[in-house]
Design a protein that fits this description.
about 15% strand; eight-stranded parallel β-sheet; globular
Length: about 270
């Protein structure tokens, strides 16, 4: 799979997408990286620790989040993406579901669109993805956890996102799927879909697992957001064992070590 100028061996390795929230109010790191200098320092740190993609987000999507004006989101993200791309040789993703924000990010050389709404909020973002030849991550998301048959409904919802991508000509070799842990799901739903994340591989697309520091971990372990590293690593190990090609995390170094160890063990068993 090609993202930007980098080739990813998604059949044989799990890569780390490092989270860079340039927001004042994200659930675990709000306000830490919302200046250009602090964002670049954090990006460099994640790159040095082994991140393969940097994911830049300008609007918090924590539970109960408030939408911000489009221009404000653009101002938060575009200058950071442009600065990262001018300084570092690494693919950069824009974490947005708004076509206006995505377009400005693509203009400054973003390589990927990470859409938590899976192209279902505004289909113009799918056309932009196709027009720019960008990669995309299509996440499963519902307003509320109302399901008739949970996994079956997730599959049906993701099929809609895939169909939108195909309708606008998005390159099939540049589509990634995300089960959407923490978005319109109960704790039990989140645990189930993490355990069954390999079911998303039915279409043949790479899968990204994004659980870092999320409430599923906090509620399961009864821990605050700043003490969820071990729980996150446990989900990363599960993700590797289930065949995920990417994990999206805050703590790059620790999760890369967990991936390397897990892959080494699986290789001994002939699974890699």
């Amino acid at each position: 799979m090609l993202i930007g100028s980098r080739e990813f061996d998604t059949d044989n390795h799990c890569y780390v997408m490092g989270i860079l929230n340039v927001t004042p109010d994200s659930f675990s790191d709000g306000g830490k990286y919302n200046s250009l200098d602090s964002a670049l320092i954090q990006a460099e740190k994640m790159i040095n620790e082994g991140a393969s993609i940097v994911d830049v987000g300008g609007e918090s999507t924590r539970p109960g989040y408030q939408k911000i004006p489009i221009q404000e989101e653009i101002e938060r993200t575009s200058k950071v993406i442009e600065a990262i791309k001018s300084r570092f040789d690494i693919p950069v993703s824009i974490d947005t579901y708004k076509p206006e924000v995505a377009e400005e990010a693509l203009k400054v050389k973003a390589d990927m669109i990470n859409d938590i709404r899976g192209f279902q909020y505004d289909e113009r973002i799918a056309k932009l993805t196709a027009d720019y030849g960008a990669a995309c991550c299509l996440m499963h998301w519902r307003e509320k956890p109302n399901y008739t048959s949970f996994m079956d409904d997730v599959i049906k919802d993701l099929q809609i996102s895939i169909d939108i991508a195909k309708k606008y000509g998005v390159n099939e070799n540049k589509i990634i799927l995300d089960p959407g842990v923490g978005f319109g799901k109960t704790v039990e739903n989140n645990l189930e879909i993490t355990n069954k994340v390999d079911e998303l591989k039915r279409w043949g697309y790479p899968v990204l697992l994004a659980t870092s520091r999320k409430s599923m971990i906090g509620l399961t372990l009864d821990l605050p957001v700043d003490q969820r590293l071990e729980g996150t690593i446990a989900t990363t190990v599960i993700g590797v064992m289930k065949g995920c090609s990417f994990v999206r995390v805050h703590d790059v170094k620790e999760n890369i070590r967990a991936i390397k160890m897990t892959e080494a063990i699986l290789a001994r068993n002939g699974e890699y």
